[in-house]
Design brief:
5 helices, about 80% helix
């Protein structure tokens, strides 16, 4: 099915970065990705007054994604695999930080300190992803220039 040219033309963008093998579960990554977001939207809407249900869902869905990506290695490149695991780990750390911003932690001074930690995790994630994008762009530019000079 995934090797059919008509299917690739219509739906190739959905699984372009995934490593597809006949016995692979990698094709389920995009389904998991969409279901996770739809489920969160439903949980946020229907349990808007129950913050612990939302946090619990976020925590468990992130663990499921980490396990799926770690066990099934759905991406073609190791760098994509590592980047996805890093991003999910950052999401998990932010979920733990968000727990501290609820009534679970009464000390306002401690919440203020946890806020700095949350900003640090967010900045680390932004800087890491930005460096990956810049590195990828520089590599592509170098290869493009090298190709033009050799022709």
């Amino acid at each position: 099915m995934f090797r059919d040219e008509e299917f690739k033309r219509k739906f190739g963008e959905f699984y372009e970065s995934l490593e597809y093998k006949e016995d692979s579960s990698a094709v389920y990554y995009n389904i998991l990705f969409v279901l996770r977001r739809l489920s969160f939207a439903m949980f946020a809407f229907f349990s808007s007054n129950q913050l612990w249900i939302q946090i619990s869902f976020l925590f468990h869905s992130t663990i499921v994604v980490i396990l799926f990506v770690g066990l099934y290695t759905p991406f073609k490149s190791k760098s994509q695999q590592r980047l996805e695991l890093f991003n999910e780990a950052c999401i998990l750390m932010m979920i733990y930080h968000n727990m501290c911003f609820t009534d679970f932690l009464d000390d306002k001074e401690r919440r203020y300190e946890v806020g700095y930690s949350a900003i640090g995790v967010t900045m680390l994630n932004i800087l890491f992803n930005l460096s990956v994008m810049i590195g990828f762009s520089l590599k592509r530019a170098y290869l493009s220039i090298k190709k033009k000079l050799l022709l």
